[in-house]
Amino acid sequence: MSNELSAAGEADLGEAMPEVLRVWRDGEVAVFEIDNPPVNATSQSVRRALLDAVQRAQSEPETKALVICGAGRTFTAGGDISEFGKPPREPHLPDVINRIEESAKPVVVAWHGTALGGGCEIGLGAHKRIIAKDGLVGLPEVKLGLLPGAGGTQRLPRLIGPVAALDLIATGRMVGAEEALRLGLVDAIARDDLRAEAIELARGLIGQMQPRLSLRNTPAAEPEAWQAMVDKVNREARGRMAPQRAIELVSQSLTLPFSIGQPNERRAFFELMNSEQSRGLRHLFLAEREAGKRPELAGVTPRDVRQVGVIGAGTMGSGIAVAFLDAGYKVMLIEADDAALQAGLDRVNGLYLRSIRSGRIDENTRLARLANLAPTTEMGRLAACDLVIEAIFEDMGVKLELMKKLAGLLSASTLIATNTSYLDLEPMADALPAPERFLGLHFFSPAHVMKLLEIVRARRTSHEALATALAIGRKLKKIAVISGVCEGFIGNRILAKFRAQCEFMLEEGALPREIDAAMEAFGLAMGPFAVQDLAGLDIAWARRKRLAATRDPNERDVPIVDRLCELGRFGQKAGKGWYTYENGRRVPDPAVESLVRAHATATGRRQRSFSAQEIQNRVLTAMVNEGAKIVGEGIAARPADVDLVLVNGYGFPNWRGGPMHHADMLGLAKIVVIAEETAARDGQAFSVAPLLKELVASQGSFAALNGG
Ligand code: 3HC
Q: Is the pTM for the entire model greater than 0.85?
């Protein structure tokens, strides 16, 4: 479009402007193009340039209308996150947007890519909005623990009504062009050429007085619909402050003039900005983007992977197959015999049918994805794969057998991965002719839903294999974190320590329901004992039996789970475990509590009561201490990687930023005191991480190790 304009001999006014805003004219329409890579964030330089350009346009007789658009892949991703937490610099975005709205000359915004946060709010200040067919728009501030801070909570309800506005603001979800049009958030969807159509739209408005959204009344809501939305937001907030503030601010748009609502919104924005919740969520946003960046991988080209083989079509294997199919890969699903293969296919189908029922995909999508699935019992066909993932029984002997078979089958270029959650990768690598092409891809169940992927790097894994795994993680839309090899890798290793502390507390007087309640109050979706019931206690029992022979007799070990399993209390699926389940509802069981008490007394340990705070501190310390060991040993590259694993794979509340970030907030000195108490009490079962002690001695922090 800009070429066409230059070819048409349009005046280029860009020279005097800062680089972040290109300005030109198409006849009587001035076009302002935000150009601030990578995502056109509304940084201070952009705000300044936009304000100057809009003001200047007011006095230019040859300019009769304005179009604001974005260069590159996106209109704008909104406020510049790297400026957050620093003193705000003028001009402020609300002032820029107010100036746009007050423009005597009509302003049209052309949204493409993503128009998020401040980018959406710029559009709400403009007089008309047009969006590209594949454009997305939204106010995702709540995901960073914030609210829209540039008029969004006041203008959006005035435009689309308070119920829909609260929905968008409190969920932070993005809407596509069709929905945006249906909601009245945009005036048009571009048919073909967004820029040209925006200019035409602006031209059509020349000479007309443009109504200002901020002067309009918010349309009244149906009381029931409003109340239902408020209830939903409260229900889903689960400890997060921002959605609740959204209710308050959107309500104000119904009763207060914009001139009062907007400063109130701005105050709330800064209060939230300084909150620990927003710090935690911002930390995770940046951590996600840093996770795959390894200096040793700079410049390494990932291999092209199209055809993926998944061996084993159990729960994990079928979920992994669906994850790859959903991302557009061709998948070969392998099972030992026809019956097992059919059962696997039924699982894959079941997952797709569930997605259809929940409205996530339609029938055509299901058919298209299944067309890329090749089920087979012939291992030889795996030779055609670029990547083969084993998701078979978690047993070293069985896995080694498989590796030996694969060694003779696969071409020299095939990447081989194991989905093991605990086992050592090195013996498996030893069984392969090219161990540099071997690594772990540890998915979490359900594999097609859970965001976390631990990429496990064995001793000989090549840079190319690692870079390929990271590229696959991105394509699968997973949060991929690299882990070294150790028992349980990052997540399960920490989980083991966390669970051990919970069981130790049972021996010292706490009850399962007290520990679960304390951890749920902390923000975990489910307490640790309820989670064990959900997963099935028999799995832990089988593992305990396997490890019994090699367990150090001096190690503190709590055998209560063995007693429960001996009584057939295998968890939720058996209707009883740590709790009893009545119509799916979990109820504390006096029989379990007496069993716990009897065991606790028999240990001879002092019995006492625990406050919720004490339980939380002890659990958190166990996690942080193990996390510090994991970082100290180089298993995780950064404390932030540990945070990503715990938040995305283990239900740690994201608004606390993960255990390591949360520990920084609490103060590491406090964590070390609790860790030392724990070490004194638990003997061999617990030792204080050297890194933790070093950081306290040097007044350091995990954030500093992250490079933040
Ligand atoms: N500010 C600064 N940098 C940003 C940014 C932002 N708002 N959004 C993204 N970036 C950076 C990322 O950190 C990343 O940097 P890197 O290349 O150095 O790692 C780069 O842009 C590309 O981002 P992604 O890797 O995330 O690229 P994707 O294509 O996967 O996603 C996106 C693009 C959908 C825009 C996603 O980045 C996103 O969701 N960004 C955040 C959007 C947001 O929350 N906006 C609201 C901001 S708050 C606000 O607007 C306040 C206002 O109300 C006053």
A: yes
